[in-house]
C-alpha cells in the first residue's frame, strides 16, 4: 500500500519547516567526501578550525578548480583524483565554516559595486541581444550569393 503524499503527523509538519538536507544530491556529497578526505590526509582534519584561513587563498583555489573543470578536466589527476567540482565545494564549505566559526581571515578588500555592475551589464544584454540574434537568424536564413 502506497503512503499518502500529505501527512498530518505532527513531526512531519514541524520537519517541513527545517533545513531540507534531502534536497542535496548524494552524488555531490560523495564527491565532496573524497575531496575532503584528500584534504584531511594532506593538511589534517578540520585544520581551518585550528588555524584561521585566508579567504583569498580558498577563493583562488576554488576558481582554479572551477576553471580546470570548465576547460574539460573532470578530475585532478593527483592524490585521490577527486573531481574538480568537489574541490570547488570543499573550498566553499571551508569558507562558510570559517565564517561561521570565526576562523576566516576576511582579506577580500573593500566592497565594490558588483551588484550594480551586473545589473547594468544584464540590462545591456537584454536591450541589445534580441536585435543581434534577429540579425544572426536572418543572416543564417539568407542564402549566400556568389
Distance between the termini: 71 Å
Spatial order of strands in the largest sheet? 1-2
Strand content: under 5%
> How many domains is the backbone divided into?
1
Instruction: Please outline the major beta sheet.
Output: 2 strands, parallel
Uncertain runs are none
Rg on CA atoms, Å:
23 Å
Helix percentage range: 55-70%
Compute the average pLDDT: 93
Order of helices and strands: HHEHHEH
Shape: extended
Classification by helices and strands: mainly alpha
**DSSP strand tally:** 2
Helix run count: 5
What does this structure look like?
This protein is mainly alpha-helical and 146 residues long. The chain has one domain (25-141). 59% of the residues lie in helices and 3% in strands. It is built from five helices and two strands. It has helices spanning 10-15, 26-43, 55-70, 84-101, 114-141, and strands at residues 53-54, 104-105. The chain has a two-stranded parallel ribbon with strand order 1-2. Helix 2 (26-43) packs across helix 4 (84-101) and helix 3 (55-70) packs antiparallel against helix 4 (84-101). The radius of gyration is 23 Å and the shape is extended. The termini are far apart.
Give descriptors for this structure.
mainly alpha, two-stranded parallel sheet, 3% strand, 146 residues, extended, 5 helices
What's the topology here?
Layout: H1 10-15, H2 26-43, E1 53-54, H3 55-70, H4 84-101, E2 104-105, H5 114-141
Parallel strand pairs: 1-2
Helix pairs in contact: 2-4, 3-4
Describe the structure concisely.
The protein is mostly helical and 146 residues long. It has five helices and two strands, in the order H-H-E-H-H-E-H. 59% of the residues lie in helices and 3% in strands.
Amino acid at each position: 500500500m502506497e503512503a499518502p503524499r500529505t501527512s498530518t503527523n505532527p513531526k512531519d509538519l514541524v520537519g517541513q519547516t527545517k533545513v531540507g538536507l534531502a534536497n542535496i544530491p548524494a552524488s555531490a556529497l560523495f564527491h565532496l567526501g573524497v575531496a575532503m578526505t584528500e584534504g584531511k590526509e594532506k593538511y589534517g582534519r578540520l585544520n581551518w578550525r585550528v588555524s584561521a584561513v585566508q579567504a583569498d587563498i580558498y577563493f583562488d583555489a576554488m576558481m582554479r578548480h572551477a576553471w580546470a573543470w570548465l576547460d574539460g578536466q573532470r578530475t585532478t589527476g593527483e592524490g585521490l583524483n577527486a573531481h574538480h567540482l568537489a574541490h570547488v565545494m570543499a573550498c566553499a564549505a571551508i569558507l562558510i565554516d570559517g565564517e561561521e566559526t570565526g576562523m576566516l581571515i576576511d582579506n577580500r578588500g573593500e566592497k565594490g559595486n558588483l551588484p550594480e555592475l551586473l545589473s547594468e551589464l544584464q540590462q545591456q544584454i537584454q536591450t541589445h541581444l534580441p536585435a543581434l540574434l534577429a540579425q544572426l537568424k536572418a543572416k543564417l536564413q539568407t542564402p549566400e550569393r556568389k
